[in-house]
Specification:
single chain; nine-stranded antiparallel sheet; six-stranded mixed sheet; 18 helices
Length: 763
């Protein structure tokens, strides 16, 4: 077993990793899969300048606007930043002010030396106010503690206008109400990424209010203002509605810290109050912080890792990031708001949302099936299924948060997440109902030119600038439907979708050896440049160099089309070794972390280093994986080269460090790469343990000399899911020279439709 290292798993997490240029993570306080993510916002920019601030915080910034209660961890688009509060000592200013002009607004300067970030806790000193701010959280409640200077009046400003990815008119409506018992409640509706999203809050203070002011500073022309409400000034108005609301709550000079607790609800103000009462009954900040710490220590203990300190910190932080989403999206009584915008109640499961499915089906959710209890997968699948029932379109979520659909990205990737869970026997859900929902999503003609895909066998590029990407992603999703249908005995469905799974071939040009956009008349679009990316390229956040290998279900078929194993190897080498001017992709979002034409900062590349295994040259995968890990991850704010995408980048690193990766979810197989840890133990949800141990791990020993499973030589380059879940030991012996005889034969290679299904095998 692994011997204790100098720091615990909890102490090894650094929430600052990824808060730099491209990671889009936040450093604030949350609990595992929590609905509240309470974190500082450093800049709110106009919409077209917002991409870099998708998480609200960037490490290089020097001022803090305040602390808002909802964020995404590593998203490539964004929204949220709900209910921003800022503690103010002394004079109150109602506008944020300019970064370069201290005192021009309510924002405050800060220094990283005063920041402390750990799972479930964040603290910083706001220099302009000499206020020490501390944050912690429960699932639905954010808890703040502010220590003010004793000689200045204490205030808390609530800016209901502030929103990540901001633009004029984003706030459709909002309200603030001061109730008789001192509880502040309210809501806002925004026309953001998820249109007409409503969120409610309830706020209580540990100190009595000395006064308050409620303002409506709506900047838009108001042709009709209605009649005045009771009250002659902001100070004697108890409730206010509008689109530019600010609340200021006054406490006089305080001799002890002010504790503020804020609950959120997707349903109602009363729901928020009930969440507050259920989760944080008093004002004991330290008790809530300890509760959050214990929750994280429990979750992080699912893996024991022995590695060099830098790698260990990166890995435990990756695990921390992977355990944030999909997050709880319901009140404590089970009520939630569905994609039909109506209120529903979850019975027998937790409704979760924040489904970045284009990203997370690849490795994030497969990781959860290994380390989380089956109830977690039950929550995920049943949330997807009720969303399909409640959807006005009758399809599974595409990119959903807080129960609402955004229509972001492509594919119907809820399908492989459900199929992967079913094929592994994980989770408690109705498989027939699930298959029907999957088929409904895959046959809804109005979505993403699916009608043309079903008619032609591909998405034509004539009217769709992402046509080639859609075709191959649909084909993989279709294959997972066929797998699940066959296991259920639905042979008609299985045969239909297995045939559709071969549609990737319809956009593969054997003359060029690349995936190429095809027109409705059956001809490939010319001229063709495999390096072209961006709008109308035919590809989604990438180009043909990344997407030509996207047929995880049939890599053997690709090898045959290319002309043999070595042709695939040569093509992969050409991609990794290409000389590329990064400026060419400067205007294409999410293209980052380039190694030649390989783009680790975006998900279509994530399985590519493992494809050498399919060509019988696993030592080449081992070389490329070291190249990627060494250049793309490090334990620093700029330690993620691309968006973490709600845990996908982190899950990739975890799997890769353990020595295997789920190239094709639904196969129940993991392709073996090479390890980056001396030892790791997965504490499996069934009570067993799977232990990975590595001999001779060093910078020069980058190759796998031999692999043993439970003491016996492993002669194939993949593991089966059931082998991991049975517990045991995977033993790597590293070497400075490649082993060119290990796992080279076709039968030793990972699953592929062409060599398994077509041969009638049951793998």
């Amino acid at each position: 077993m692994i011997q204790a290292q100098t720091s615990s798993a909890f102490q090894s997490v650094d929430p600052m990793i990824g808060t730099g240029p491209e990671g889009h993570t936040f450093p604030g306080a949350t609990v595992p899969f929590g609905m509240v993510q309470l974190s500082p916002d450093t800049q709110i920019r106009p919409f077209k300048q917002s991409y870099k601030w998708a998480a609200g915080y960037r490490y290089e910034d020097t001022t803090i606007l305040g602390f808002s209660h909802t964020h995404f961890s590593g998203a490539g688009h964004s929204d949220l930043g709900d209910f921003l509060v800022q503690p103010i000592a002394g004079d109150v200013r109602l506008e944020p002010g300019e970064i370069d002009t201290p005192g021009s607004g309510y924002r405050s300067r800060f220094h990283h030396e005063t920041e402390k970030a750990e799972p479930g806790y964040y603290a910083v000193t706001l220099d302009d106010y000499a206020v020490r701010a501390e944050l912690t959280a429960t699932t639905r409640v954010g808890v703040h503690r502010y220590t003010f200077p004793a000689d200045k009046t204490a205030h808390l400003l609530l800016d209901m206008r502030s929103s990540i990815y901001n633009y004029t008119g984003k706030v459709l409506w909002s309200s603030i109400r001061l109730r008789a018992d001192g509880t502040v409640t309210g809501m806002r509706e925004t026309r953001g990424w998820a249109p007409a999203r409503q969120l409610y809050f309830a706020m209580r203070f540990s100190q009595p209010l000395a006064g308050h002011e409620l303002y409506d500073r709506e900047p838009l022309p108001q042709e009709y203002k209605g009649f005045a409400t009771p009250g002659t000034s902001p100070a004697d108005t108890q409730a206010i509605m509008g689109r530019g609301l600010i609340g200021v709550f006054d406490f006089g000079e305080l001799e002890q810290p002010l504790v503020v607790k804020v609950a959120i609800s997707p349903v109602s103000e009363d729901g928020a109050i009930a969440n507050l009462d259920a989760e944080v009954s008093g004002f004991d900040f330290d008790a809530v912080r300890e509760q959050a710490r214990q929750a994280w220590e429990k979750e992080l203990s699912v893996v024991d890792i022995k590695a060099d300190p830098a790698m260990r910190k990166s890995l435990y932080t990756a695990l921390y990031h992977a355990l944030m989403a999909p997050s709880v999206a319901m009140d404590e009584d089970g009520r939630y708001r569905g994609p039909d915008y109506q209120v529903h109640k979850a019975e027998g499961f937790n409704f979760v949302s924040a489904f970045s499915l284009w990203d997370t089906y690849r490795a994030e959710q497969p990781l959860m099936t290994l380390i989380e209890p089956p109830s977690r997968t039950t929550d995920v699948v049943r949330s997807l299924l009720v969303s399909q029932k409640e959807s006005p379109f009758g399809i599974l979520p595409i990119w959903q948060f807080q129960g609402l659909e955004t229509w972001c990205m492509i594919g119907y990737h809820a399908v492989p997440e459900i199929a992967d869970a079913y094929m592994k026997g994980v989770g408690n859900f109705d498989a027939k109902e699930a298959l029907d929902a999957m088929v409904a999503s895959a046959t809804y003609a109005p979505y993403g030119h699916l009608g043309e895909y079903m008619k032609l066998g591909y998405v034509p590029v004539d009217n769709d600038g992402e046509a080639a990407s859609k075709t191959v992603e649909y084909a993989f999703d279709d294959w997972t439907i066929s797998r699940m249908a066959r296991k259920l005995g639905r042979m008609d469905v299985a045969d239909t979708f297995e045939k559709r799974a071969e549609n990737w071939r319809n956009v593969f040009n054997t003359q060029t050896g690349f995936l190429q956009p095809k027109k409705a008349d059956g001809s490939f679009r010319e001229p063709f440049d495999p390096a072209q990316a961006g709008a109308q390229s035919g590809f989604t956040e990438g180009n043909s160099w990344q997407y030509s290998w996207y047929q995880p279900q049939d890599e053997a078929g690709l090898i045959r089309l290319l002309g043999g194993d070595q042709k695939l190897v040569d093509k992969l080498d050409a991609m990794f070794d290409a000389k590329v001017d990064p400026k060419r992709y400067a205007d294409v979002e999410d293209i980052a972390g380039m190694i030649g034409q390989y783009i680790h900062g975006n998900e279509p590349s994530h399985h590519l280093a493992y494809l050498y295994d399919y060509a019988g040259q696993p030592w080449r995968s081992q070389e490329r994986l070291k190249q990627i890990v060494d250049s793309q991850y490090r334990p620093a704010p700029d330690g993620l080269v691309g968006n973490d995408d709600l845990g996908q980048m982190s899950a990739w690193l975890l799997f890769t460090a353990f020595g295997f990766y789920p190239v094709a979810p639904g196969t129940n197989e993991y392709v073996i790469g090479r390890p980056f840890v001396e030892e790791a133990t997965l504490h499996l949800p069934n009570g067993k343990q799977f232990h990975m141990v590595t001999d001779n791990l060093s910078g020069t020993n980058r190759y796998v000399g031999k692999v043993m499973l439970n003491g016996k030589p492993l002669t194939r380059s993949y593991l089966r899911h059931e082998e991991i879940m049975a517990g045991g030991e995977l033993h790597f012996v590293m070497s400075a020279v490649p082993n060119k005889t290990w796992a080279t034969s076709p039968e030793a290679r990972p699953f592929s439709q062409s060599i398994a299904d077509k041969a009638g095998e049951s793998r």
